[in-house]
Amino acid sequence: MKKLMTICLMAIASVLSVSAQSIYDIKVKNDVEQEVSLSDYKGKVLLIVNTATRCGFTPQYKELEALYEKYRGEGFEILDFPCNQFGEQAPGTIREIHQFCKVNFDIQFPQFDKIEVNGANEHPLYTWLKGGNDIKWNFTKFLVSRDGRVVKRYEPKDKISDIEADICMETNPVLSTIMARRSVRKYLDKPVEHEKLEIIVRAGINAPSGMNRQPWVVRVVEDQKLIADVNKVCRGLYNAPNLICVCTPVNGGDLDAGLLGENMMLAAQSLGLGTCCLGGPVRFLNTNADAKFFLDRLDIPEGFKLNYILAIGYPDEQPKAKPRDASKVKFIY
User: For 172-185, b where at least 16 C-beta lie within 10 A, e where not — what string?
Assistant: First the structure.
């Protein structure tokens, strides 16, 4: 019994170890049974698929090849892993499977040796991809970002057009920056370089502005003592190493200031920085006498108020995306 428990614990530890590692630490065999490291695909957007040649979904090969031809020039790859676990619908050797796919669908994307995706002999790649939720059938797909994150899982019946929209969001640099940005609340103890802060603010002030009024003033706080002092009296600044304070006229300017802030947050994301837009702490700073020293140092012009603060720094966390409700969008034809 003791020996059995030891074996079970070792197996659990092994699974945890695999699930915790990067996709780029995993090795697979290609269609000529040579070992390949997935680190070869670092920096690429990946669609990983378990396939079968005698399945009702096998015609999806044609749609997958069309995706590949359309986006491969933008750093997109499809990785095909035939699997015979579902109805034994991927019979034959990998060379026979590859020949079938070339003749019938003229696929150009790489195929790899047959693997198992569930069970005791499942490949470490699928242990990592599925996170404990077993594969249900052939042509389940996983979209992986350029930095090695699983962006989304697709079931066999999911529309290729929906998958293409997500691929476009990942391959386009602007769209991928938008999709990758998260609110960061834990930062490394490392101030942002002045040059990067200048770039971020320049991106901000080039945001759209009604009639080009630019109804804002921006204060970038780099003084570490001032930041330490304000953290003593105001919670919710998350000990960010830098603060970008945006001020607007007392009677307006909120829309333009919002556009300014979004530009700055996306610019920061593109430079490897994290941000969090803060409103609650601003209400405290605007009303509490203990925080007057901070507002005085900001030198806010008469007739303006502190509208919001961007906490900014090198992230010490990687928050996951929270779900968005697409049903709130309607297209009027």
Answer: eeeebbebbbbebb
pLDDT, tens digit (0-9, with 9 covering 90-100), for 138-188: 999 999 999 899 999 999 999 999 999 999 999 999 999 999 999 999 999
* Residue in 279, 310, 285, 275 with CA at minimum distance from that of residue 229: 285
C-alpha distance from residue 245 to each of 110, 221, 270, 307 (Å): 49, 8, 20, 8
Of 157, 166, 119, which is closest to residue 138 (Cα–Cα)? Answer: 157
At CA 110, angle to CA 106 and CA 116, rounded to 5?
Answer: 110
Q: Which two tokens stand for residue 86?
A: 């579902």
The answer to whether the CB of 139 falls within 8 A of the CB of 49 is: yes
**Structure tokens that stand for 154 in this block:** 């697709």
Residue 295 CA to chain centroid, in angstroms?
A: 35
Contact 145, 168 (CB under 8 A): no
Does residue 130 contact residue 23 with C-beta atoms inside 8 Å?
no
Cα–Cα dist 101/312, whole Å = 49
Torsion angle defined by CA atoms of residues 177, 178, 183 and 186, in that order, rounded to the nearest 10 degrees: 0
Active site residue 55: yes
Q: Which residues pair with residue 313 across a beta bridge? A: 274
For 306, residues 6+ apart whose C-beta sits below 8 A from its C-beta are 245, 246, 247, 282, 285, 286, 295, 298, 300
Both tokens of residue 69? Answer: 């031809």
Residue 242: other Cβ atoms inside 10 A: 27
Active-site residue identified among 8, 55, 245, 277: 55
On whether the pTM is more than 0.85, the answer is no
Q: How do residues 293-314 score in pLDDT, each as one tens digit? A: 999 999 999 999 999 999 999 9
Our separate counts of H helices and E strands in the chain read 11, 10
The residues facing 51 across adjacent strands are 82
The predicted structure's pLDDT at residue 21: 80
